[in-house]
Recover the amino acids of this structure.
């Protein structure tokens, strides 16, 4: 390369310069000035130009770190930084399992299974997308189809195998749920507020009778309790949002259509719900095996009956918020009942005392 084209001038040690010396000579040090040789001899402090390359992405390999202390991700530090993944401290934090969610809504589509559930949904005027039936129009199945067509609902005939496939997730022991030849696609259950339950009791001119479920996890037990609550004349059922079964298709099937008439409130905190009921003048009775006999407790008037988890019973905090406890007398070898059965017995004992005290 000639001296005219060489941007840096003549190389040290060339034939023109003769023997190499330790004086200051020109080398591409970038923006850093050369301040003497390795032995500490002082040289001049002139600034040398930064080298310019014709090829892209060939910047200064010794580029300093960025202001935040991290090295750039681009090649040689000249090109734009590319995100090659999140750093651990920048990654979004995973919420806790039971962290409360604002404006939580249950928007899961529901499948109504069985003749009773579908018939009551049609009779109550509930919003139904379509009804799937088999071509076996025996007994009440023909009545359901007639009612659906009077409401101008969409009714489609399908094979029984199709219904078996739809109801398989809601069955037990690898068997499909007993759909009885009819299935309906309906909108999700509309949950209400506790105040709506109290208003319903006031509109009927009766003392509030509320069923509160503390950790019922089996949807079949939930459906059974809702069914018994409707038969016993309760004004509403309160369930929890977490660690509790929601009103799914299996619960609707077990309720046999009672979900169409029963007001169901879904709350975040059961203890806070009990305090709200107390402020409205409602007594709170908790079902507990260690409690007094139900026949010796006064269950008449405004009452909230609390049913605990299938295995653990009432939680400690909920038990402390109950005004008193009540139990069912046992006379056999087994000292416990199914949660749905126990709830039904206590409900009708309450109604018996109401009728006796009337």
């Amino acid at each position: 390369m000639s001296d005219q084209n060489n941007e840096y001038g003549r190389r040290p040690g060339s034939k023109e310069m003769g023997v190499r010396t330790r004086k200051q000579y020109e080398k591409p040090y970038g923006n850093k000035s050369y301040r003497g040789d390795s032995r500490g001899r002082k040289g001049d402090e002139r600034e040398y130009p930064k080298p310019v390359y014709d090829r892209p992405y060939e910047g200064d390999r010794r580029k300093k770190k960025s202001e935040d202390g991290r090295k750039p991700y681009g090649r040689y530090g000249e090109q734009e930084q590319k995100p090659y993944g999140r750093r651990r401290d920048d990654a979004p934090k995973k919420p806790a399992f039971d962290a409360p969610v604002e404006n939580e809504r249950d928007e899961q589509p529901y499948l109504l299974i069985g003749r009773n559930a579908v018939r009551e949904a049609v009779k109550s005027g509930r919003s139904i997308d379509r009804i799937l039936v088999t071509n076996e129009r025996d007994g009440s199945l023909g009545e359901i189809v007639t009612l659906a067509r009077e409401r101008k609902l969409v009714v489609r005939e399908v094979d029984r195998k199709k219904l078996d496939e739809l109801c398989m997730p809601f069955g037990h022991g690898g068997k499909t749920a007993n759909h009885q030849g009819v299935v309906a696609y309906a909108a999700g259950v509309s949950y209400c507020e506790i105040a709506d339950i109290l208003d319903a009791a006031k509109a009927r001119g009766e003392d509030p009778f509320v069923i509160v479920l503390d950790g019922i996890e089996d949807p079949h037990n939930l459906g059974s309790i809702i069914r018994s609550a409707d038969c016993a004349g309760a004004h509403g059922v309160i369930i929890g949002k977490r660690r509790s079964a929601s009103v799914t298709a299996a619960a609707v099937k077990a309720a046999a259509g009672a979900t169409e008439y029963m007001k169901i409130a879904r709350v975040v905190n059961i203890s806070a719900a009990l305090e709200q009921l107390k402020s409205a003048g409602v007594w709170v009775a908790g079902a507990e095996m260690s409690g007094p006999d139900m026949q010796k407790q006064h269950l008449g008037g405004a009452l909230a009956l609390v049913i605990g988890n299938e295995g653990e019973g009432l939680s400690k905090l909920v038990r402390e918020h109950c005004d008193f406890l009540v139990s069912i007398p046992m006379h056999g070898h087994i000292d416990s009942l199914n949660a749905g059965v126990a709830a039904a017995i206590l409900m009708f004992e309450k109604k018996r005392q109401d009728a006796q005290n009337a």
